[in-house]
Amino acid sequence: MEAINSSYVINKAMQGKTLLYLLLLEVSILGLTLYDKIFGLFILILLTCAALFFIIEKKPEYSIIFIIFSILLGPISTIPLKGKIPQLYFIDVVLSLVFFILILKYLLLKDTFSISFSFIELLFLVFILYSFVTILQSVDFFRGLASLRNYLMGWFVFGLVLRIINNQKQIEKLFWMLMIWGVCLSLIEIYSILSQGNILLTVITKNVHLSWGKSNYIASFYALLIPLGVSILFTKNLSTQTKLLLMSFILLMITSIFLTGSRGGVVALAIGFLVLLWRFRSWQTLVAFLFFCFLVGIVIFFNPSSQIIWQRLVGYQTSPSVFSRIELWTECIKIFKESPILGVGLGNVNYHMKLSGALFVKAHNLILELLSETGIIGFIIFAGLFYKVFRIQIENCINIQNGFQDSLAWGILAGTIAVFSHSMVEPNISSYQFSLVFWTVIGISVKQEEFRKIGKKI
After folding, report:
1. For residues 167 and 4, what is the distance between their CA atoms, to the nearest angstrom?
2. Which of the 8 DSSP states describes residue 71?
3. With the C-alpha atoms ordered 291, 293, 299, 302, is the resulting torsion angle positive or negative?
């Protein structure tokens, strides 16, 4: 009897109403949670795995969508179960499921899944491996592993984007998913603020927090995503309805970044807007952009938090936050001088700070964090990685001719520069959830370069 081709079996399984029946069965299992939550949750997880396998097999690009949207769900431990479980996030489960599904898919369909690595992937991997070496001589090995996990998951998502994006339509779809994701984050943030009662007090105390991030952290996402949307907004071939929808998304996210009360996030966003000025080559487009900036100014003026942020910006010379950061940076320079080659180990700089409350602080500067934790070698590897990233993004802005893709290339460049600017006071690039979204965006720019070089229509 001839061996059954695995691809043929999977394709047959996807035909008809198999997936529909599977989803209906999953919904019915939810009823079991009313009787026995643990049993119902266990069955639900099994069926979710099966559903994800069939969906990702047919539409691999959905794996990225599942990953980034699971960030918004927060920790699993908020689900009321009979016993308390350790802090575990939905994103942890989804990443594990996607990884398992892709490994299984590779074993079944080796001819359709690539395991070759690009130069940027290899350089990123070298940085991760080197960072692991620095952890071996650190004070807290497990804290170092937790920090290493953030980079490793960013590397995984980055590689995933490079393998599942095959055409420009998928890039456009992923862009819109990122915009919708930003809107969802805004709505969740606004709900959190309203639930606290006093909006101004919440902003003044920077008490905006979700289950997985606080004010400055949340602002990083907007600093990355808003420039993408603004750049696309001025694409000529977009319909009026699409532009109005996108404008509403952007204004909502701008409102939200001001509600975080993050001074660094707002400054980073302003830098991203300045980068976009270089994109506009005609007076007509420039005037339209300036008019949009005027509308943004109106939104900011009526935002209850704008005056608070403005006072923080002009009063930086007396800000305790500024002085505490300067103190941290000075301490990081001393730590780097003591361990200039290997550093003190990834994620371990706080153990070497001779400051009050040092166990609760980080460097608050990406460059100093890398130098103090991974030494000059780790910093050079990381700097080389992002030199390559910026070079690709600039070449995309110069050479891509397609209207939408050209706009997106400029938006990615502006967003990346904004994020790096913010990382000089809040190094969120090295954090968990943000790295997943950030490396998704970087992956898009690398795919744009790949399409451009092989001559695909872009």
Report:
1. 31
2. G
3. negative
Classify each residue of 41-54 as buried b or exposed e, where b means 16 or more C-beta atoms within 10 Å of its C-beta: bebbeebbeeebbb
User: Whole-angstrom Cα distance, residue 128 to residue 126?
Assistant: 5
**pTM of the entire predicted model:** 0.85
- Which residue ranges make up each domain of the chain? 6-115, 121-454
Angle, CA 326 vertex, CA 325 and CA 330 arms, to 5°: 115
Please provide the DSSP assignment of 348-372 as one string.
-GGGG--STTGGG---SSHHHHHHH
Going residue by residue through the chain (458 aa), what tens digit of pLDDT does each one get? 444 454 444 455 445 456 666 566 656 655 655 555 566 666 666 767 777 777 777 788 888 999 999 999 888 765 555 444 557 788 988 898 888 887 777 776 655 555 678 899 999 999 999 999 999 999 999 999 999 999 999 999 999 999 899 899 999 999 999 999 999 999 999 888 888 776 666 666 666 778 788 888 999 999 999 999 999 999 888 899 999 999 999 999 999 998 888 888 999 999 999 999 888 777 777 888 888 888 888 877 777 666 667 766 666 666 667 777 888 888 899 999 999 999 999 999 988 887 655 444 678 899 999 999 999 999 999 999 999 999 999 999 999 988 899 999 999 999 999 999 999 988 889 999 999 999 999 999 999 999 988 875 44
**89 phi and psi angles, rounded to 5 deg:** -100, 155
